[in-house]
Amino acid sequence: MSKKYEKILIPVIAIILGILLGCIILIISGQDVGALFNGLVKSATGFDFSKPSSGLNLRYPGEFLVSSMPIILTGLAIGFAYRCGMFNIGAEGQVIVGSLASCMVAILVPMPPVVGVIVCLFAGGLAGALWAFIPGILKCRFNISEVVTGIMLNYTALYGANYFLKGLPESTTTRTVDIPANASLSSEFLSSITNHSRLHWGFILVIICVIAYWFIIEKTSFGYSLRATGFNKEGARYAGIKVNKSTILSIMISGFFAGLAGAVILQGTFGYGRVMSAAENYGFDGISVALVGGCNAIGILLSGLLFGLLKVTQPLLQTSGIPKEIGDIISSSIVFFVAIQYAIKYVLTKIELRKGKAQSKKAGDVQ
To answer: Which of 190, 212, 210 is nearest to 199 (CA)?
Structure first.
């Protein structure tokens, strides 16, 4: 079996097994399996099989896309770092500081329309990149694991962001004022065609980021040098690549993607800064998305849509009497089956060998 074929087949098998496990749990607990599939279809398309006469409600797919956008961006962040030999577990903190920077610029800096949107997005991405610079420089200078520093910086970002958000003009203990319209990604047009969902122009940014990820990683010498550094530092150094520079740049680009996710949440989904008591786990969802997507641009896009679908379906499951945690069970099961991909490869190899022996035996009998 070719490696290219394996990269496609194994995630598909993992997804099927994860959904199958969720169905088994529902059957054991006496729940309706049909409600799970109806919820998934309804969230993705807006069509409710339990009420066919109601027609399409495009609010559901609109919210599905809104839920998927930041997850795809954090998936790109994790995937980029991983392809370059880094594990950016600090993406959650980078999302938070990206949202904070975007919020502060939007509220404190008067700007004209369109320009305001772009500047705030760039501020969010830059904040994420600078936050990622910290574990990058610590790894290069002192060989401190980016995993350790990333985890600690997640908490620093959460509580630090809360402090600064509360200090903004007219903020309460739970939120800031709404950001100005000239910095918002929201769209009355997109909302109107999706039955007043929160769908916004951030989907264009997500598409651009997916293309940029693919182009940098796969089609540029710069991306090749980053990947070479992650694959073999000493070999890269021998080839004349500046290893420390490549290491820092790779995690900063990763942080830029994560910071953009925070900006999209702020400028598109909510439209105001939120004082949070706990992290929302976008960064950790990004780890799952990157793993299932094989750290490939298109794979991350499709995986992000899948995890966004599972996340947005949870409230619908609750209305059907199914615990919302079933979505988390399916998501974690999918990641588990991807993590044991070598076991799946072993089974697939055994199946191929048996088929080969059976065909050889059949050919011998014919002769």
So the answer is: 190
The model's pLDDT over 191-245, given as tens digits with 9 standing for 90+, comes to 999 999 999 999 999 999 999 999 999 999 998 898 988 888 888 888 888 888 9
Q: Which of 350, 335, 346, 339 is nearest to 21 (CA)?
A: 335
In the numeric block, which tokens belong to residue 205? 């940014």
| Residue 276 contacts residue 197 (beta carbons within 8 Å) | no
Query: How many Cα atoms occupy the beta-carbon half-sphere of 222 within 13 Å?
Result: 10
Alpha helices in 84-145 (DSSP H): 91-108, 115-142
* CB 180, CB 108: distance < 8 Å: no
- Per-residue burial over 68-80, b if 16 or more Cβ lie within 10 Å, else e, is bbbbbbbbbbbbb
- Scanning the structure block, which residue is given the tokens 């710069």? 222
Q: Taking 60 as the threshold, does the pLDDT of residue 366 lie above it?
A: no
CA gap 120, 99 in Å, rounded:
9
CB 119 within 8 A of CB 106: no
Number of H helices, E strands in the chain: 15, 2
Report the residue count for the chain: 367
pLDDT-derived band at 365, boundaries 50, 70, 90 = low
243: left (phi over 0), alpha (psi -120 to 50) or beta: alpha
Return the bridge partners of 272, or none: 178
Of 199, 209, 173, 177, which Cα lies nearest the Cα of 77? 209
